[in-house]
Amino acid sequence: MFVYVLVNPGMEPWLKAEAAFRHPELKLSYSRPGLVTFKAPEGRGEPHFWFSRVSGVFRVKTAPASLDTALNLWSEGRTVHRTLLAQQSAEGTIAQQGDQVLDVLDLGQELWLGTRTVKPFTWGHPGGLSGLALPAQAPSRAWLKATEQLLWSGWEAPVGSVAVELGSAPGGASWALLQQGFQVTGVDLAAMDKLCLDHGSYSHVTLSVRDLRKKHLPVHIDALFCDLGLSPVEAIPQIRELSHVHPEISWLFYTLKLGQKLPMEQLQKHLDSLHALGFTLRCTHLPSNKSELTVVGFRGRVTADVSGRVHGKE
Questions:
Q1: CA within 20 to 30 Å of 262's CA: 14, 122, 160, 231, which one?
Q2: Running DSSP on this structure, what letter comes out for residue 140?
Q3: 251-257 and 280-284 as β-strands: parallel, antiparallel, unpaired?
Q4: Phi then psi dihedrals of residue 240, to 5 deg
Q5: Would residue 61 show up in a list of annotated catalytic residues for this protein?
Q6: Distance (Å, whole) CA 293 – CA 255
Q7: Mean pLDDT score, 217-242
Q8: What percent of the chain clears pLDDT 90, i.e. is strictly above it?
Q9: C-alpha to C-alpha distance for 94 and 79, rounded to whole angstroms
Q10: CA 34: distance to chain centroid?
Q11: Rounded Cα gap, residues 169 and 186, in angstroms
């Protein structure tokens, strides 16, 4: 059997390195920008990758003229998504958790069909593309990352949930959180955009994260967001300190900077350090991510309701 992985173009080497490290039973098969396939042992099931948008089990190849015949064989009971590899675009209805998806991968002269199941912390969106566009008034691209992080995680935070953002300037992520009903405290020496500063649910701490103390923070924190321009060796100790001071933090959204050649063994050690703080971790490479990895952590356990939204449970 073969498995397919849709990946952001340019991240194929990271995906291949991850597969060699985490899934050595998979043998590299075919790849092109945005798509990597592996030969897998029969019955292997759907693998999960940190550096994928979506992944599933390959079923059949077909010519464009024979697509209707292939759909008749494979689409029953499945939501059909079509991904155009050359354009890095996709179409179809958003699938909910538990739904079966038939991915039609359009390679131009040939179509590849594969199947996958939408599970917690996976994309139900066609091609694993959020479909979001950066608003013209957004202070920065961090708006996209924060919005996609929440969307991918499935966490529907209650209005009024308290978030602290480390490295908040100029305010793209903070503004995204404010739009979704959070009370936000941003921490950064640099200036914040007026969209945030003028918002009644925002407060700013003009300090380096290294100088941050408990007295500067809200009494209670529900979620910690961290997109510091620091290496993991420098950023994770800041997360560790806040997690010790505020053990009630139930969600962590960390944008881990990869640099140029972060070995998989070292990346795993960084994740182990976060796991040691009591977080269950899920990782992904968001459509808006560049040389970075999104790490979502939660404490306790989570359940998904019939709508596919995720709720935290102690």
A1: 122
A2: S
A3: unpaired
A4: -60, -45
A5: no
A6: 6
A7: 96
A8: 93
A9: 8
A10: 16
A11: 8
Whether 115 and 56 have beta carbons less than 8 Å apart is answered as: yes
Strands of 54-62's sheet in order across: 27-32, 35-39, 2-6, 54-62, 111-117, 100-106, 79-84, 89-92
Fold of 142-313: Rossmann fold (3.40.50)
Token pair, residue 89, equals 């675009």
Look up residue 45 and give its amino acid. G
Residues whose CB is less than 8 angstroms from the CB of residue 105 and which lie 6 or more positions away in sequence, other chains included: 4, 6, 35, 83, 85, 111, 112, 113, 114
Amino acid at 302: V
- For the full predicted model, state whether its pTM sits above 0.90: yes
SS3 57: strand
For the chain, what are the domain ranges? 2-128, 142-313
What is the rounded average pLDDT for all residues in the chain?
A: 94
Domain boundaries 2-128, CATH class: alpha beta
16, 39, 145, 257: the active-site residue: 257
Q: Tell me whether the omega of the peptide bond preceding residue 247 falls within 30 degrees of 0, making it cis.
A: no
